[in-house]
Design a protein that fits this description.
Blueprint lengths: L1 E2 L8 H11 L4 E2 L4 E3 L2 E6 L2 E5 L1 E3 L4 H6 L15 E3 L4 H4 L16 E3 L13 E5 L14 H5 L7 E5 L5 E5 L2 E13 L3 E11 L16 E3 L8
Parallel strand pairs: 1-2, 6-7
Antiparallel strand pairs: 3-4, 4-5, 8-10, 9-10, 11-12, 12-13, 13-14
Length: 224
């Protein structure tokens, strides 16, 4: 499993349990070396060849942390990728304004708006290229929008108000369901992730100080 600073990540407990159950090594991308087309890392002074990579490296984080690595992720190397680096650019928030559906909130490229919506309280501002809620503004103002120089890197999206529906000992929590797919010839739904919270946004960083929130799973009845 390839990560940046894996032992300092909030989700490291998941890494350890998955590694223990699936029998793979957890490796910081800085530890990988390349010789010809082969990757390897050292453990107790012994070179361990790498043949398969479960990739969790996020390019934004590589750039933000100024991480120096010993090979080029774009090169053709002798490994099998579980989550090829190119997939990071295949699907992103850049696609959102092109999705027109009753199930998707309307989104607009900021640089293509001649006029801003009058009801900005019903919109969120998002960077096109970020992750884990970084840079998202839920209380948008016209002054804030006008101050953005690189408008081509942002979008406005209709705000989704999460319903407080899960009863807990400390009040009602909101829920978000994420569907997890394996994508071969076509996407196959294999799992889901239920996130609960009481903050303005979902995620650990936005729900500090709250109890009875976090990650879970949703069960459903198969009617077939």
């Amino acid at each position: 499993m390839l990560e940046i600073d894996p032992h300092n990540q909030k989700t490291r407990i998941d890494f350890y349990l998955t590694a223990e159950n699936c029998g793979f090594a957890i490796v910081d991308i800085r530890e990988l070396k390349i010789r010809g087309r082969k990757l390897y890392y050292k453990k107790n002074g012994v070179e361990i060849p790498v043949e398969r990579i479960y990739n969790r490296v996020i390019f934004d984080e590589l750039e933000r942390k100024n991480v120096e690595i010993n090979f080029d992720l774009r090169n053709d190397i002798d490994v099998t990728w579980l989550g090829h680096p190119n997939w990071f650019f295949k699907i992103s928030k850049h696609s959102l304004p092109m999705i027109k559906s009753r199930y998707a909130p309307n989104s607009f490229y900021l640089d293509q708006l001649n006029n801003y919506p009058d009801d900005l309280e019903n919109y969120v501002l998002k960077p096109l290229y970020s992750f884990a809620g970084s840079g998202v503004e839920v209380n948008v103002t016209i002054d804030q929008l006008n101050s953005i120089i690189d408008k081509q890197n942002f979008l406005l999206q209709e705000k989704v108000e999460y319903a407080p529906l899960i009863k807990t000992p400390e009040g009602f929590s909101k829920a978000e369901i994420r569907l997890m797919y394996i994508w071969e010839k076509e996407p196959i739904l294999v799992n889901n992730l239920l996130r609960t919270g009481r903050g303005k946004m979902m995620g650990v960083d936005y729900n500090k100080g709250f109890n009875w929130i976090g990650a879970s799973i949703g069960f459903y009845q198969n009617k077939s």
